[in-house]
Amino acid sequence: MSVILEMKNIEKSFPGVKALKDINLTLNNGEILAILGENGAGKSTLMKVLTGVYKVDKGNIIVFGKEEKFQNYKDAQKKGISIIFQELSLIPYFNAWENIFLGNELLKLKKFLDIKKMKEIALELMEILGVKLDIDIPVEQLSIAEQQFVEIAKAISIDVKILILDEPTSTLTPMEVNKLFDVMRELKSHGVGMIFISHHLDELFKIADNVLVIRDGISIEQNPIKDITVEKLVEQVCGRSLGLKFPPKRNFNDNKENVLSIKNLMLNNKSKPINFDLKKGEILGIFGLVGSGRTEIMRSIIGADSKYKSEIYKNGKKINIKEPFDAYHYGIGLLPEDRKTQGLILPFSVEDNISLNNIKKEILSFKEIKTNSKFQVSKLSIKTPDIETPVVNLSGGNQQKVIISRWLSTNCDILIFDEPTRGIDVGAKDEIYKIMNELVEEGKSIIMISSELEEILGLSDRIIVIRQNEIQAELSGNASEKEVMTYAVGGNL
Asked: What's the per-residue H, E or C state across the chain?
């Protein structure tokens, strides 16, 4: 192996924030280097410095033995550096092949787009990734996980020498993660060096050769993955030791009253009716593979997506929900799957985003709003200079906490959490799990959609498995991984 990348004493500041204080890393060819750190530690900022998205304030970037000062991402690409960003960077109204070749379009006769060739390569890339999707429709019509695979295809479509993967598995199911890892191993065998950012410790031990821990903008330590334990990593990341990954299972009483009943829900006139109940003080887990319809079903319940028909009862009384505000009126809130486009107003401040649900009130007490915002920031350990900071400046995990804070600020007693810990670090996950348990102990009820099977099994009192817009099975919270996955893929036990 030979060193292909060195970053020495890297510093980067923004107004009011010193994001990177002293970062050092080394990457070899044919090596997978995992980077681990809490939200706000500086991981994504460091990668944007490496790829020319941000200009470095101080320090050295050495690629293949030569110091580089990239002015933009295109400069980095010319050196064979490609990145899969944590937040999707696709143009929504472009289709898959257009996004894959954006900025690197193939030409024939030096002036005409070679559409046929680009489509052929796009299909080949999808085959390599083991994904079937329509490459001719706008990517906004694809699921978040399908869009993630388009991002991955885009990153490997160039002659990549250094590939950066920033939280690429956050929307993927275990089977899809395995597909991605197979691709990474193949790239590794061809000498590609990879930087892999993930909050899933089990993934790091499966795929990484070395691991670098970053805390508060400083590189703590880089070690071979075989020489370090999970406990040691967690302590390095958080600066403290954590307790159990999931809170102890509660003795949930399945005989509690129903607070929400969904009857004869049909997304279209050809789908089978969906029926289920949510009980008081329950965490109801919803699991399904990508494309199963799990998110679409929940969005249709609150009126965010259309439905063919349904009957919705809250506390035994029939309610009519035509749009999300109706759901909010009835005390039903949604933490959306895609925080960036569906959950936040990015230019608005942390305070404004936390307080959005109060916008319909006739009288706003600015003092109460400010007090509540500060309380929520403290309660969820949101890393922000102050509550006036634009939420776009926060890390992905802290943005997610802002949305959760918004619903904690309301009187909603039914909360639908779609991927509540997507892009959240191990320390913050621990806090959010405890918050969820506190909410149900207070009598609130939670529907939790998650593509992390371990999370579904660790938190749910009951589990509903969705496949092809239908309920495949309803299981107890003590179900096994084998049971859940068998039903998710269409099998029977």
From this structure: CCEEEEEEEEEEEECCEEEEEEEEEEEECCCEEEEECCCCCCHHHHHHHHCCCCCCCEEEEEECCEEECCCCHHHHHHCCEEEECCCCCCCCCCEHHHHHCCCCCCEECCCEECHHHHHHHHHHHHHHHCCCCCCCCEHHHCCHHHHHHHHHHHHHCCCCCEEEEECCCCCCCHHHHHHHHHHHHHHHHCCCEEEEECCCHHHHHHHCCEEEEEECCEEEEEEEHHHCCHHHHHHHHHCCCCCCCCCCCCCCCCCCCEEEEEEEEECCCCCCCEEEEEECCCEEEEECCCCCCHHHHHHHHCCCCCCCEEEEEECCEEECCCCHHHHHHCCEEEECCCHHHHHCCCCCEHHHHHCHHHCCCCCCCHHHHHHHHHHHHHHCCCCCCCCCCEHHHCCHHHHHHHHHHHHHCCCCCEEEEECCCCCCCHHHHHHHHHHHHHHHHCCCEEEEECCCHHHHHHHCCEEEEEECCEEEEEEECCCCHHHHHHHHCCCCC
User: Are residues 153 and 113 in contact, defined by beta-carbon separation less than 8 angstroms?
Assistant: no
Six-digit token string for 62: 């050495």
Predicted structure pTM score: 0.61
In the prediction, which pLDDT does 348 show?
93
Tens of pLDDT, residue by residue over 186-215, are: 889 989 999 999 877 788 899 999 999 998
**Secondary structure of residue 240 in the 3-state scheme:** coil
| Closest to 400 measured CA to CA, from 476, 355, 335 | 335
pLDDT tens figures, 32-56: 999 988 767 888 899 999 999 999 9
**Interior CA angle at 375 toward 370 and 376, to 5°?**
100
Range 386-400 average pLDDT: 85
pLDDT at 340: 77
Q: What is the CA radius of gyration of the chain?
A: 23
Higher pLDDT, 381 or 441: 441
Distances (CA, A) of 72 to 20, 52, 148, 203, 475: 19, 4, 23, 31, 51
